[in-house]
Write a structure and sequence with these properties.
227 residues; alpha+beta; Alpha-Beta Plaits; three-stranded mixed beta sheet; 11% strand
Amino acid sequence: MAQAPSERGTRMLDSLPAIYRTQDTSGHLKLLLGAFEEVLFGNDDETGTPPGIEQQIEAIPSFFSPLGDRYTGRSGLAKTPDRFLPWLATWVAFTPHALFTPEQLRVIISGISPMYARRGTRAYLEQLLKLCFPEILDVNIDDDPVQGFIIGQAKIGEDTLFGNERPFWFRTTVDVSRKGGAGTDAESLAEFEPKVRAIIDFAKPAHTAYELRLAFSARESSERYTV
């Protein structure tokens, strides 16, 4: 219910000892306390007054809840406002946040925290790629070193190279569903591949190099992340 101007200050005045309440015959004390009430508690009228400190404190939990009720299980909890999502992404050390829409970013932020302890590992990269891109069906990371030239077994250009071996190198093969929207034409592929590379660059150990292979399939991913 909207608070009438004549009632402002009542909440704080009623909390004072009786001697102050009864002596305020002019209403000046109540008027003064009304200004403090507006700052501390806000009001529920339609004057466009900014929310009070109390209301802003109550909103703090939602800043850390990208999916709202679904993420925390707390009934009535609002989602993180879109403008706070990049800030929240930095809290979970996800620097490529600018590549994703707010709805995509909500899913990534909510799912990346439990994976933090595995950063720099194969499992982390595989899971992060699938979290960021629901259209990815499978990720295969080959980090086995080149075995050298073995007569009768070596395949030049596939598993054997002439020259120096490539240390700290791995190959990432990503199987992508065309039904997810990626790779359906040259334009979407041109947009999709740089995003995948950005995530790999973010997740891989800094001293490593890699080769990326994208394979597109007509199958549809059975694992979907929705907001």
